[in-house]
Write a structure and sequence with these properties.
It is a single chain. The chain is an alpha/beta fold and about 350 residues long. The protein has one domain: Inosine-uridine Nucleoside N-ribohydrolase, Chain A (Alpha-Beta Complex), CATH 3.90.245.10. It has 12 helices and 11 strands. Helix 3 packs across helix 4 and helix 4 packs across helix 7. The radius of gyration is 19 Å and the shape is globular.
Length: about 350
């Protein structure tokens, strides 16, 4: 007997890697998407909401009727600060123009809507996949504390426990954007899995994969390929490698195929006051605090298996020729190592 799909809420701030994550979510039959909630992050909230609506409409099918809700327009305790560098390009999607959304945003606030989904479902039925600053999720756990006992788990893309950050030398962008929210969530007691820069930087998508998606020519694959090409070009300028990390897609993969990653149990928190370390994820893997583990932290990833998983799902679900062998053709998935 096949297992029923896991019911999930996607909390996001599209963003290129959020866009690829949304495509992967709807290409994964293991997941049943209750809704998409939005929060300011990679771009401002109005643009985030518009991007989410356009992306879901582009996917079509169930995605075109999935509720998309507005969440918080800024952090819990600080002013919103947009990235100094336009990592995600024009409008947050690498300059890729998608058709205008054909439906309005769902009424109500994201936080209250998530709470309703949790209360209306059985205990342990709802998983939140959070690929953005954790403002909405912290607000949920604070204003609706009963949800802590009812959530199955929260899978977070955020932090850099054992690697340098990308917002500061110590902090990853999502946690740095709202460190108070990240700390509240990590210390909430809800089952938590963290997929940070430690592993996302080890699972790069090369330019050749972006080219395969563009060449496929279908609406979703073409858009995904062009977005990824934008990120690859940025990585080439900044990191001297013709490949890019697709951070949020790895968090989705962790919810579907946790066996693609290696995990360690740790007590974790987030630094909020440090002059140079604000937003840094602190992970006690050796028990020095004496506190019991409150999270599973990803420490390794089978990069080639993730790459194949992502390409196969995208091409099989959205490709113009899903049986054409693109995703399984080793010539199209040749490993491109760092130069």
């Amino acid at each position: 007997m096949s297992r029923a799909p896991s019911r999930v809420v996607i909390d996001c701030d599209p963003g290129i890697d959020d866009a690829i994550a949304l495509f992967l979510v709807y290409a994964s039959p293991e997941l049943d998407v209750a809704g998409v909630t939005t929060v300011a992050g990679n771009v401002g909230l109005d643009q985030v909401v518009d991007n989410a609506l356009r992306l879901c409409d582009l996917v079509g099918g169930p995605a075109a009727t999935t509720p998309v809700l507005r969440g918080h327009a800024g952090p819990l305790a600080r002013a919103l600060r947009q990235p100094d560098e336009p990592v995600h390009g024009a409008y947050g999607l690498g300059g890729v123009e998608l058709p205008a959304a054909v439906r309005p945003v769902h009424p109500g606030h994201a936080v209250d809507w998530i709470a309703d989904q949790v209360y209306d479902s059985g205990p342990g039925e709802i998983t939140v996949i959070a690929t953005a600053p954790l403002t909405n999720i912290a607000a949920l756990l604070h204003t609706h504390p009963d949800t802590r006992e009812r959530l199955r788990e929260i899978v977070v893309m955020g932090g850099a426990a054992f690697a340098p950050g990308n917002a500061t030398p110590a902090a990853e962008f999502n946690f740095h954007a709202d460190p108070e929210a990240a700390r509240y969530v990590t210390e909430s007691g809800v089952p938590l899995r963290i997929v940070g820069l430690d592993v996302t930087r080890k699972a790069l998508t090369p330019l050749t994969d972006a080219d395969v998606l563009i060449a496929d020519g279908a609406p979703v694959t073409s858009a995904a390929g062009r977005m990824l090409r934008h990120l690859v070009e940025r990585y080439a300028r900044r990191h001297k490698v013709r490949a890019c990390a697709v951070h949020d897609a790895l968090a989705v993969a962790a919810a579907v195929r946790p066996d693609l990653l290696e995990w360690t149990d740790a007590w974790v928190t987030v630094e909020c006051a440090g002059e140079f370390t604000r937003g840094a994820l602190v992970a006690d893997v050796h028990g020095r605090t004496g506190l019991p583990p409150n999270a599973r932290v990803a420490t390794g990833v089978d990069a080639q298996a993730f790459r194949t998983f992502l390409m196969t799902r995208l091409l099989d679900r959205y490709g113009a020729h899903p049986d054409g062998g693109h995703a399984s053709n080793p010539d199209l998935l040749t490993d491109q190592r760092r130069k």
